[in-house]
Write a structure and sequence with these properties.
about 150 residues, alpha/beta, 2,3-Dihydroxybiphenyl 1,2-Dioxygenase, domain 1, four-stranded mixed sheet, 8 strands, about 25% helix
Length: about 150
Amino acid sequence: MAIEVQPAVSPHLVVSDGAAAIDFYVKAFSAVELGRVPGPDGKLMHAALQINGSTVLLNDDFPEYNDGKSSTPIALGGTPVTIHLTVTDVDAKYQQALDAGATVITPLEDQFWGDRYGVVRDPFGHHWSLGQPVREVSMEEIAEAMKQQQ
């Protein structure tokens, strides 16, 4: 039987406590756990979640497989990556993330590009932006607004 492959891009997060991260993502983003593979010491070798219709992979930090270096955002002093969720009720979803323990990076506000948008940091150091389109904006309007930002 042939295996059907669905091309995709899936973030793969490294966290300090995989089980706690799964619990957080379930509370914060209504994640559905698809499965987990625990290692012999109880750490998660691999886990898969579905968040906002997409697969997110994660595992516990294993410095011993990374030249002795931790690779969590907290250990690295931050992250250059933000995972974006387009949602239909951004105010409720943003508050849900905060209630679950996320912290505000960018307050939720209407933005010049037409989205209501904000960014949170999860307890494991990963950044998540949440946005909802609220008005149509032309490229000309966006360009003009960008000039006003400078």
